[in-house]
Amino acid sequence: MALLASSTSGIFSSCGSLWMGGDTFEVPLELFAVNRRRLAKRLSRIVDGRPFVLLQGGSELPFYDTDLTYHVFRQESFFMWTFGVIESGCYGAVDVISGSAYLFIPRISDKYQIVWMGVRTLEDFSGRYNIRNVHYCDEMEKVLHNAHPSVLLTLKGVNSDSGLPVNEAKFPGIEKFSVDNTILYEEIADLRVFKTDLEISVLKYVTEISSEGHRKVMRYVKGGNKFEYQCESEFLHHCYSVGGCRQVAYTSICASARNTAILQYGHADSPNDKMIESDDLCLFDMGASYFGFCSSVGCCFPASGKFTADQKLIYEAVLAASCAVFKACKPGVKWVDIHILGNQVLLGELVKAKLLKGDPEAMTSVGLGAIFQPHGIGHFLGLDVHDVGGYLSSQPPRRGEPRGIDKLRTARVLQERMVLCIEPACYFIDVLLDEALKDAVLSKFLIPEAIARFRGFGGVRIVDVIAITKNGAVNFTKVPRTVKDIEKWMAGKDDKKYK
Ligand code: GLY
Ligand code: MN
């Protein structure tokens, strides 16, 4: 049972964890203390003196001009990684030499705020987060001055997926300190790539909850006559009600029929609002988020519970790519080569299926893979679903050619403790097929009549969460994957198989 550390919140047990109670997972605060120690150790080797790391946590975003905020506040990921603090408006510092952590929280003195939001004292935060040095944000200058840092290391960098900058810490009085923003980003982003045992156990949990949600939805949708958003709702309910996951890692993609060929379906213009017919193919790509730790699982199956010949053909082609990719994932292998392998296996299957003709290696070298799978083979996963560290200046090469490789979110060499999504896919997207048919090089591999048959088919994507181990990889995803297993599951069998 959760023992309450304060009268206002039940999510913290007495033994120092982030926890939603019941059978949900206890995330030990030690996880974040370990991260701070890793960071301090790394920085102490490269920065002289007595440097302090200074990070600014996330702030509530107002909902346009209103006095409401976006539901629900989600902590900034670098700050979460370092401190595990879920409240908004905070700052944190780490003394690199002693390893001591400092937390700065907003001072809530306004009566209106106290009445509407409640009040948290310094002692509340100190007890919850096992951090002795907790002060108000308006005391930062004084507290940091008294601590005598030789330099404040702040976070300046650009996310290689979005191209957006991180929010560098600023506070009134910072100009009185020596500040260096050139070191921290690369170091902390690189540390975030390699997950500790504690982090891996949370990512495993959130993937198991997501897998359970998918399995539930597969049975729920059987026979069709459900709206896509009803499937989304079943998933959200499972993840929150059973798993304690108040948020999802990204907007749920619940696509059916032609919509399965829209890669990021589910956004505001296409809000999972189609009625699923009994003969539709479904592609559901959904992942829960537990205290910021993200999962991403993608399942593809027929609403009828029984694959048609064409659905089976394309599904098994993607599954062959998924199996080959998983088998190849181990330390020392280049992610670019994994992507190329996935493309080659898929294209080889499409040759066997008589949609293409020629040599899959030659096809891949001219970028035909990107016509059928116009995204990379996957990405890092952690506190962000597209986790950081894919391209750091210390980690060449940059995004490259040919077509397809340029979409990769990382080109790093796989190493133990990396956690990734693998997501091979095959879509029939008119605009890309038209482009390929007009292209002198690509068109010679296509069999136009066969391609024509699959226009409007949609697409298949299979998304698994894996962790790289010493000699290979483990798969945390627990959903039926083969055609036979999917059909059995949807028929109400194999209840114990995926526990
Ligand atoms: N699976 C969602 C994404 O990678 O964007
Ligand atoms: Mn993904």
TrEMBL record:
Molecular function per GO? manganese ion binding; metalloaminopeptidase activity; proline dipeptidase activity
**EC number in record:** 3.4.13.9
PROSITE patterns per UniProt? PROLINE_PEPTIDASE
Task: Fetch the SMART domains from UniProt.
Answer: AMP_N (SM01011)
Keywords (alphabetical) are: Dipeptidase, Hydrolase, Manganese, Metal-binding, Metalloprotease, Protease
Gene Ontology biological process terms from the UniProt entry: proteolysis
Spell out the InterPro entries in the cross-references. Aminopep_P_N (IPR007865), Creatin/AminoP/Spt16_N (IPR029149), Creatinase/aminopeptidase-like (IPR036005), Pept_M24 (IPR000994), Peptidase_M24B_aminopep-P_CS (IPR001131), X-Pro_dipept-like (IPR052433)
Q: Which reaction does it catalyse?
A: Xaa-L-Pro dipeptide + H2O = an L-alpha-amino acid + L-proline
Pfam hit, one: AMP_N
Q: Which cofactor does it need?
A: Mn(2+)
Q: Where is the Aminopeptidase P N-terminal domain?
A: 27-163
Subunit text:
Homodimer.
Q: Which family does it belong to?
A: Belongs to the peptidase M24B family. Eukaryotic-type prolidase subfamily.
Name of the molecule in the record: Xaa-Pro dipeptidase
This protein's species is: Asbolus verrucosus (Desert ironclad beetle)
